[in-house]
Amino acid sequence: MKIIFLDIDGVLNSSNFLYKKNKKKNGERALNQIDPKTIKLLNKIIEITNAKIVISSAWRILYSVEEITRFLKYHKLVGEIIDETPKGISGKRGDEIQDWLNHNTKKYNIESFAIIDDNSDMVHLKHKLIQTKFETGLLKEHIEKVIEILNKEQTKG
């Protein structure tokens, strides 16, 4: 199985998108914070690699995996969210991702993984990071890099 460790703020939304959306304050707030254009890009990655998603975003502190799934499916996510990373390991996402891998690689038969995040606190896993920018979120230019990591690299951290 291939895994995408997914952040939300700065990946599936951006400051540019949120600024425009902030002018329209209707509906459920979390639903309005997802940019449908970024979901289309994420869907392309999933369709090519058949990767599953593990939420590494701070959203997992505010919302359950089921709620996040509902938010993303509302915007037509084609992929499956299978889990979330543990909270509070060291305050660094790389450590939380590594802890998840330590406990789940055999369970899910993980062959490769990529991290999509606008933050760089991935410690020893930076070579698996496709770093977005909070200003712009996930862009077309990131897709090929994610696919390359998922299709070529193995789970070694």
Overall shape = globular
Order of helices and strands: EHHHEHHEHEEH
Widest sheet, order of strands: 3-2-1-4-5
Terminal residue distance = 16 Å
Q: How many separate domains make up the residues? A: 1
The multimeric state of the shown protein is single chain
So what's the CATH class? Answer: Alpha Beta
Task: Indicate the structural class.
Answer: alpha/beta
Low-confidence stretches: none
How many helix segments? 7
Helix content: 40-55%
Named CATH architecture: 3-Layer(aba) Sandwich
What average pLDDT do the residues reach?
91
User: What's the gyration radius in Å?
Assistant: 15 Å
- Strand % is 5-15%
Description:
This protein is α/β, with parallel strands linked by helices. It has a single domain (2-152), classed as Rossmann fold (3-Layer(aba) Sandwich). 44% of the residues lie in helices and 14% in strands. The protein has seven helices and five strands. Strands 3-2-1-4-5 form a five-stranded parallel β-sheet, with helices on one face. Helix 3 packs parallel to helix 7. The longest helix is centred in the middle third of the chain and has 16 residues, at 93-108. The radius of gyration is 15 Å and the shape is globular. The mean pLDDT is 91.
